[in-house]
């Protein structure tokens, strides 16, 4: 039996993985996956791959692309969620800020450097035509650190997936003032280089299994109930999220999707030009 450690955010996107593990789907290919929730997001998973505390990760396309091009020994196996991610832009509940444009030159809470909450702030800055050199950040670890930093006025802005933060918005822990959407497929499945070389065939089969389970979940008449119960979301929100979300139907490494990621990272000076050479070969 092949035993591998996989990490991902404890969010609704990853229910196909959780169900496939609980139902023993991977054992049919002689694989035992141990799932670890990574509330710190992409930055935490990059550290996990670096330290070999996890073998596989389901993380944000832009964050892992930056990390691999800067030397992380890992490879993208496939896209996982092919639709964009909708990031909520949040401010303190008592704040007078009403629009994202008012966050210019304010401090943003981020889970870690290189995380989605960090990189997507640059996407919003480009959209708003801010001077990216004026962006200021406070590292807070995870979603709860972000909420704390808003409540205690240690940061004025915080980006996180909008459905995940919805319960906290309703509890007046923060205020939702807008959203920014990733201009590329949002989640990819990644393995360390060592694991990819060792288990190439088995990893392909693993991806086919989780894609199949995602397709089944999408068609499941009880999907809204399951997602609502497990992730404490309102059913109407789950319905909207399901309509917006597309999981990969099979292993997919279409390179054209990565071009816009690399262009963004270069434009925002988040990677060096020399590191972007032969990026497809480095990433896949």
Textual characterization of the structure:
By secondary structure, the chain is of the alpha/beta class. The chain has 2 domains: 2-84 and 185-283, 3-Layer(aba) Sandwich (D-Maltodextrin-Binding Protein, domain 2), CATH 3.40.190.10; 86-181, 3-Layer(aba) Sandwich (D-Maltodextrin-Binding Protein, domain 2), CATH 3.40.190.10. It has 12 helices and 10 strands. The protein has a 5-stranded mixed beta sheet with strand order 2-1-3-10-4, sandwiched between helices. Strands 7-6-8-5-9 form a 5-stranded mixed beta sheet, with helices on both faces. Helix 1 (15-22) links the parallel strand 1 and strand 2 (31-37). It is globular.
What key phrases describe this protein's structure?
284 residues; alpha/beta; D-Maltodextrin-Binding Protein, domain 2; 2 domains; 5-stranded mixed sheet; 10 strands; globular
Overview in brief:
Helix content is 43%, strand content 21%. It has 284 residues and is of the alpha/beta class. It folds into two domains: 182 residues, Periplasmic binding protein-like II (D-Maltodextrin-Binding Protein, domain 2), CATH 3.40.190.10; 96 residues, D-Maltodextrin-Binding Protein, domain 2.
